[in-house]
Amino acid sequence: MDRTAAGWLNGFIGVLIFSGSLPATRMAVMGFDPVFLTVARAAIAGLIALALLALFRERRPSLSDLPSLVIVAFGVVIGFPLLTALALTRVTSAHSIVFIGLLPLSTAIFGVIRGGERPHPAFWIFSCLGSALVAGFALSQGVTAAPLGDLLMLAAIIACGLGYAEGAKLSRRLGGWQVISWALVVSLPVMLALALVNLPPSFAVIAAPAWAGLAYVSLFSMLIGFFFWYRGLAQGGIAGVGQLQLLQPFFGLLLAATLLREQVSPIMLVVTIAIVGCVAGAKKFAR
Question: How far apart are CA 240 and CA 243, in angstroms?
Answer without folding.
Answer: 6
